[in-house]
Amino acid sequence: MQYDAIILAGGESSGELKKIAPYDNEALIMIGNYPMIYYVYQALRQSPAIRNIVISGPTEALRNIFIGQDRLFFVSGGQNAIESFAHGVELLREKGISEQILIMPSDIPFITIDAINDFINQAEQYDAEFYYPVTRKEVNEARFPGVSRTYVKLRDGIFTGGNLFILRSELFDQVLEIALKLVERRKNPLAMAKLFGFGLVWKYIIRRLNINAVEKRFYQTLGIKGKAIISPYAEVGVDVDKPSDLELAQKHLEGFRF
């Protein structure tokens, strides 16, 4: 199956991050030899499953980074991630959009082709409409010792959310509003649970919530078949949004060349 992909690169650099990396846009922060977004793009471009790639962000600056790349398009970023995503979808519709869209932010420079392909391959084993990766705490800490992440304790284990999504393109208009709410709450497990009702919150509080219950409630609430993919790759979950993350990225990617 072929996928179109959208990289969300419109995020402004946070105050703390900007103190040590004076760039207005996170995607343009230099890590080692390349801007942060370049690592994300290269991993994505290597996947045989990916057809067109759209980068939604500061178009002029981005075009100067990517010269002569095939099947790569640019659109202006929006006021938030969902608006940036909407701009990317509009462009893909003009070109004949694929049945499935892979969405990812520009602040995951650790991402690899293996992590992307594993997520896609696992997703294709299920009949769902929205796919979201999670990784176990022990996987994250083994790969990136001491990394700071938001974890959720479930009956299945202790997990953190990933930064890749797969969505059936025909559902875009249906999920636009709820997607914004999910993005706003993605780092607050209790706020996320509240979105789906008190029963889910109570199960979370008493440590009886599991992945299957969340998936069922997701469908009951939104009418969308969601599937959590347990990824063995910590790279899908570790992003760069604070100084300690950037220091980690500089340490791991210094000297790296494509």
Q: Distance N terminus to C terminus?
A: 27 Å
CATH superfamily: Spore Coat Polysaccharide Biosynthesis Protein SpsA, Chain A
Helix fraction bin: 40-55%
Low-confidence stretches: none
Q: Using the coordinates above, name the CATH class.
A: Alpha Beta
Number of helices: 11
What string, H for helix and E for strand, traces the elements in order?
A: EHEEHEHEHEHEHEEEHHHHEH
**In one word, what is the shape?**
globular
Q: The biggest beta sheet, please?
A: 9 strands, mixed
Q: What percent strand?
A: 15-25%
Work out the count of structural domains.
Answer: 1
Radius of gyration: 18 Å
Give me the count of strands. 11
Overall mean pLDDT score?
86
Secondary-structure arrangement, i.e. CATH architecture: Alpha-Beta Complex
CATH fold topology: Spore Coat Polysaccharide Biosynthesis Protein SpsA, Chain A
Oligomer: single chain
Commentary on this structure:
The chain is of the alpha/beta class and 258 residues long. It has a single domain (3-253), classed as Spore Coat Polysaccharide Biosynthesis Protein SpsA, Chain A (Alpha-Beta Complex). It has 11 helices and 11 strands. It has helices at 15-20, 36-45, 59-65, 81-95, 113-123, 137-143, 172-185, 189-194, 198-205, 211-222, 243-253, and strands at residues 3-8, 30-31, 34-35, 50-57, 72-76, 100-105, 130-136, 152-154, 157-161, 165-168, 226-230. A hairpin with a 2-residue loop joins strand 2 and strand 3. Helix 4 (81-95) runs antiparallel to helix 7 (172-185). It is globular and about 45 Å long. It starts with a strand and ends in a 5-residue tail after the last helix. 40% of the residues are buried. The mean pLDDT is 86.
